[in-house]
Write a structure and sequence with these properties.
By secondary structure, the chain is of the alpha+beta class. The protein is 33% helix and 9% strand. The protein has two helices and two strands, in the order E-E-H-H. The protein has a two-stranded antiparallel ribbon. The termini are far apart.
Length: 70
């Protein structure tokens, strides 16, 4: 697995890139460990808002090919 601190969520955020077959167990383990710290899911709209706040350029949406700009 790779763990990266290069996401839109900032200094305390991590992106985890595990093999797909380990995703359910990893999600459950991270969720359980994070409950005491107020862990929460966030969706793609939240990620896009964080991208804008960081000042990163938009990317092509793979579903409709529109380009979003910061």
């Amino acid at each position: 697995m790779r763990a990266l601190r290069v996401s839109y969520v900032g200094e305390l955020g991590w992106e985890l890139h595990p093999p797909i077959e380990s995703m359910p167990a990893l999600y459950d383990a991270v969720w359980e460990a994070g409950r005491a710290f107020g862990i929460a899911n966030y969706g793609l709209y939240a990620v896009n808002t964080l991208r804008i706040e960081k000042g990163y350029q938009g990317v092509v949406d793979r579903t409709d090919q529109r380009i979003e700009h910061a």
